[in-house]
Amino acid sequence: MARRRYIALLLGVAWLLAAADNASAQQPPLELIDKIPLGPVAGRIDHMAIDHARHRLFVAEMGNDAVGVVDLEHRALLTQVAGLDEPQGVAYSAEADTLLVANGGNGAVIGYHGADYASADRLDLKDDADNIRMDPMSGQAWVGFGSGALAAIDPATLRKVSEVSLRGHPEGFQTDPSGKYIFVNVPDDREIAVVDRASGRQIDAWKNTDANGNFPMALANNGEKVIVVFRNPARVFAIEGNTGVILAREPTCDDADDVFADDKRQRIYVSCGSGAIDVFQMKDDEILRMARIETVAGARTSLFDVEMDRLFLAVRSTSREPAAIWEYQPE
């Protein structure tokens, strides 16, 4: 009798271990943990940024001509910065304690005080101010604008420090952590431009004839890989940062607008307007799709914040869902 009980116990333990392994294998790589309402937001939502000290998320509400300020600690919309003109890019400078907003409609970059969001300064770039990236090396903000240019801006004064000419309007771009290069998607010219930071000039162009519509970009493994997503056909590319050699390419979801690299887990997150987030695993020079997570059609902009270890997805208002920020926790 004791022997039978012992065998039954062993079988029970084995079953529990197998069940745990199976549950772990089925665990999605991103878990939706919250939906933070944005209130009456109509139309398109664009890019996002974070003020870590105050636990606030900035959301470019392009269709509302406003930037929503979300209190991440209290899980609610705090306020709106209104009176903008098609805000597209947002960035926060902790050093200057300034929120920067790039307006596509009038081409202005406007600075707001981080404490109360009172307007501080303004720089008129004339045409289609778009993506903004903070440069951790210099503390400057880089803004893509016009028919083909990047501007380096002092976030404290909003003075233009320098300008780089390109062959078409810049979409997604990234500053190399080493401080040597800026990689820029220029879909109008079907290229990825490589800008030398020291000279302030474009020194190379990585052409691609297999796909077009290269909008989002990320850097992985400290800039060793440039991750670029093309829309036509929908493909994610891993490109060697030093040479421009394509290491891997894989199909992805349609209408991608943001991509992020999660170096800790060696993953790539692609958010798409088709209503999905694609999660890829980086393994040596390969990228393998782990999962496709269903979201909402039109929800194509996102932000993966390394410090918080969270992915935020901007969901526009639909007949099925109110406008909200969906917060995902990587597993």
Q: Based on the structure given, which CATH architecture of the largest domain is correct?
A: 6 Propeller
Mean pLDDT: 93
Radius of gyration: 22 Å
How many angstroms does the end-to-end distance come to? Answer: 43 Å
Under CATH, the homologous superfamily of the largest domain reads TolB, C-terminal domain
What's the structural domain tally?
2
Task: Please give a structural write-up.
The structure is a single chain. This protein is mostly beta strands. The protein has one helix at 2-26, and strands spanning 30-37, 48-51, 56-61, 66-71, 76-81, 87-93, 98-103, 108-113, 119-124, 132-134, 141-145, 149-154, 159-165, 173-175, 181-186, 191-196, 201-207, 212-220, 225-232, 234-240, 246-251, 256-262, 267-272, 276-283, 286-294, 301-305, 310-315, 324-330. It has a 4-stranded antiparallel β-sheet, with no helix packed on it. Strands 2-3-4-5 form a 4-stranded antiparallel β-sheet, with no helix packed on it. A 4-stranded antiparallel β-sheet has the order 6-7-8-9, with no helix packed on it. The longest helix is centred in the first third of the chain and has 25 residues, at 2-26. The model is unreliable at 8-14 and 16-24 (pLDDT under 50).
What's the short story on this structure?
By secondary structure, the chain is mainly beta. It has one helix at residues 2-26, and strands spanning 30-37, 48-51, 56-61, 66-71, 76-81, 87-93, 98-103, 108-113, 119-124, 132-134, 141-145, 149-154, 159-165, 173-175, 181-186, 191-196, 201-207, 212-220, 225-232, 234-240, 246-251, 256-262, 267-272, 276-283, 286-294, 301-305, 310-315, 324-330.
